[in-house]
Design goal:
- The complex is a heterodimer.
- Chain A is α+β, with helices and mostly antiparallel strands.
- In chain A, strands 9, 10, 11, 12, 13, 14 and 28 form a seven-stranded mixed sheet that branches. Chain A has a six-stranded mixed sheet with strand order 41-42-43-40-34-44. In chain A, strands 45-48-47-46-49-50 form a six-stranded antiparallel barrel.
- Chain B contains three helices and six strands.
- Chain B has a four-stranded antiparallel sheet, with no helix packed on it. In chain B, strands 1-2 form a two-stranded antiparallel sheet.
- The structure holds zinc ion (ZN).
Amino acid sequence: MTSVRKEKYGKINRGKVLGFTWDNKEYFGYEGDSLASALLANNINIVGRSFKYHRPRGVMSCGVEESGALVTIGSGSKIDPNVRATTQELYSGLNAKGQNAFPSVNFDFGGVNNYLGRFFAAGFYYKTFMGLPPFEWGKGTGIWMVFEKIIRKAAGMGKASREPDPDSYEHANDFCDVLVVGSGPAGIAAAQEVANKNLDVILIEQDSLLGGNSLSKKEFDATLLHNELKSSGVRVMSRTTAFGVYDNTVVGALERVTDHLPNPDVKLPRQRFWTIRAKHIILASGALERHVAFNNNDVPGAMTVNASRQYLNRYGVLTGNNIVISTNNDSVYQTAVELHEAGSKVTILDSRENINHDLPKEINLHLNTLPFNINGRKKIDGIDVCKTKDLSKKNTIICDQVLISGGWSPIVNLISHRGIKPVWNQENLCFTPGDIKENISVVGSAKGIWNERDCVESGLIGANEAMNTLGIHKKEISFPSAGGWSNPIEPLFEVKSNKFPSKSFVDFQHDVTAEDVRLAHREGFISVEHLKRYTTLGMANDQGKMGNIIGLSLMAEQLDKTIPEVGTTVFRPPYTPVPIGALTGRNVGKHFRPLRVTPMHQWNIDHGAKMIEVGLYQRPWYYPKKNETLSDSYIRETTIVRKTVGICDVTSLGKIAIQGPDATEFVNRIYTNLFAKLPIGKARYGIMLRDDGIVMDDGTSWRLGENEYFMTTSTAAAAKVMSWLEELLQTRWTDLKVNVTSVSEQWAGAAIAGPKSRDVLNECVLDPSEITKENLPFMGILQTKLKDDTPCRIVRISFSGELAYEMYIESDYAHGMMDILWQSAQKYDGCLYGLEALGALRVEKGHVTAAELDGRVTIDDAGLGKMASTKKSYIGSAMRKRGVLIADDREMLVGFFPINEKETFNAGTIVCEKNNIQGSGIGRITSVTHSPELGHWIGIGFVKGGLEKWKEITLVGADPVRNKQMEIKVVSPHMIDPEGKRMYA
Amino acid sequence: MSGALVLIQSCTVDMIRIKCPYCGERDHSEFTYGGDASIKYPALDAPESEWTKAIFFRENIRGMQKETWHHTNGCRLWLEVERSTITHEIKSVKACHPQIEKITKSKS
Ligand SMILES: [Zn+2]
């Protein structure tokens, strides 16, 4: 085909010339061009290679349904594959390339696939998986592995970048009374009518210009329309696609903010992901022109009829010199006349017997005539045509372009997202929206209404329906009926070829042919959903916008059924592709999730801490000296804590204030152990169960007063425990007079652990006489003042197994507390220790954390059964003794030693019997560390039957992930100071 | 799960709005789903059989269902919401605690 720019045509700005690059060569277009129109204006007709057969493809449409002109834009990290050239606005410096071709779309080695067609027919992938003759020797996945790489390379779409996306994206929300989708005649009429009633209206248009199909008219001014709408108060969002309609009249929309700009402002996001909540939605999404399946219907130069009209009147590009138009309906005749007036030779093939149209005598009209085969490969040389009644009676017409119209399909996708099945309209041969019970109206050609006057009328009625919803008035609603052509459309979906295998394409993007559909039928895939998956019909990124109806009609024919009996596949969001970047919005990098720091974060960093993420928290991991590694550092820190004293930031623990006259009763019900008799001034370690008897969390509660407790929870379960306490008080025990308040942010905490911790504390508080063994015994609490006069809370509690305390202070004073503690600790050759040393200390003592309390463990499994009171009922007490939870082979908490003390192991290691290393074994190691005190690696974890069963037996620690096995033995989890002499010192 | 992950997995958008009696109408992303609000939990000293029924035997309702939602990123009230499991339509919202109005009013 020869496409040329036409003077005096189009809505482009010829005053502004834009340079762009196509396959590394420079070309020019104008402001207002799409990439497709600019390529056509430069007479570039091969713009892509097809998915499987690598057939040359050209521009086939003028919009989102494009199946041929899929290109790659940009380079490096800014590369964007599978862009529809038809919807990409041209900008200065745009760099586009053909894809799925080597070395270029014009000359592509992959074209050889075209001749290997039989291997690439429908179901190829499935059959290769299963072993297909003549490849039986390589049955199944073996052969798949061989071919997979080759096929993946040969079949496919463009390539994405491997680099991080440098663009930014935003999420945004909006609200309105009425949301109108589409700015064709129906949408415009609806929006204006509603805006005139002073309602808040948003109009969404995917195109850069308003007007919808009015843009294909010669006399149409989109700017004028835009201004009119704005002055009537409509909020217009162009370059925005409504990709999905959801429950409660919510619409998801993607706004392309800078995709059309050469050098966008860096402050602008590339795209915005909108959630728009309307009270009523009016869908005026229009209709798409269909193709017809016949042999070689994909040769570059084959295009829909209306697309050619758009290129002429919107972009000033005449797409062919000698054009054949094939149709079964009236919509093409205006185009034929305009193409003729623009200087092309025009021939019309109409499949119908009688039609009534006045045409200039230069236009040849052949009635009862079908397209049979396009001649040519990279360009059209002519078309073989035949008679409706006699396919063998053929005749060749020389031409350079074939325009096709097989009828129109209303865009019912958006309303189908609501689960409303489209209904087949036999008179107009299309699916129209089914009955809608929600506050949504469908208007215009999206409803199958073809003539403009009726479209406008339907828009006004849609507006009235919206006003009914909003209670403005109560009017009877009656839409104009579908259709509107003077000569009825007649079915024309496929013209069967006498060649085999024929290349009559149904789905151009995925190279699905009419033959593939029949093959699927022969092989038993007769449900439309199976047909879709077996042939991949409608699964490309156009989601079957062009091919679905043809595919359905072919299946209906095979089954001897009607199209409505065969039904259609389910449409799901998104209507057009939505980039992953837009879905994630700003939630990337550091903003992927919130970051929490403790009040002494800066203090920790200033004192050399290396940080680690624990949930959302940044916590000190270790405090290396000079060239120390992690392991050097934590072994040193652990050793110093056991020898003298160490200080550790424990602020991330959850803290909850429990207050009220029933506070004691409440605390007593949620913990397994007795709290009713806890005296004021004492704390207690407690375990909480879930309703089903499994351990939820462990922590401490301090009785500060008659009706006041201070609870600490684990870091991991802090939020969960808080919600749980609120749930109990608000939904179950509404008679209890208790208030719970999260004070996690209000209190900063530090652990002071080691034999010298008492001496350190003595120097830190205002009155040293308070910190004595008698005045502050194990689990005693003290509300006192630091030596700089700031109030603090101290509890004598130990996670490390040493003499230890935790001190809490109002968060604003955290740095001061750390300064005082650290100053004192240094005098005793103490250290700061991080999470790694904290872990080592607690593993040596067999103390459990979230790694052990993983939602499968009972209080008995954790070896804490003596903390389950038999004197009271509490949450979980009824369920913790149910059968499965008290079985003999429960996994019980134990310690692990390597037999060879030089060996190390990892958390996650599976514990197996020596001669039975398989499956999930008899247990698992959950936490490991090097123990400086014992001089080798140790672990804790679980084993079926516990210590008693496996004592003195050599087991195997299997670590298949790291391909490692080693001999281990089971020991008591309390590996250091089991009697607790140090802790109670 | 982060909101972004939900979006990526389902290309879906926040479509539930809950009218919290204390805060007003808010996006459901501020709330955490609790569970079946019609369950009457037995007394703590009730036998295992009663607890088993309450914990493990649940209806899978198609239609209006009473459920609890926690206004986690708001006032922290636990709410009883009547929601259609088919359309997400919300028929009613009230605080789970029967005397909540009395309690909040006496504060101010
Ligand atoms: Zn609230």
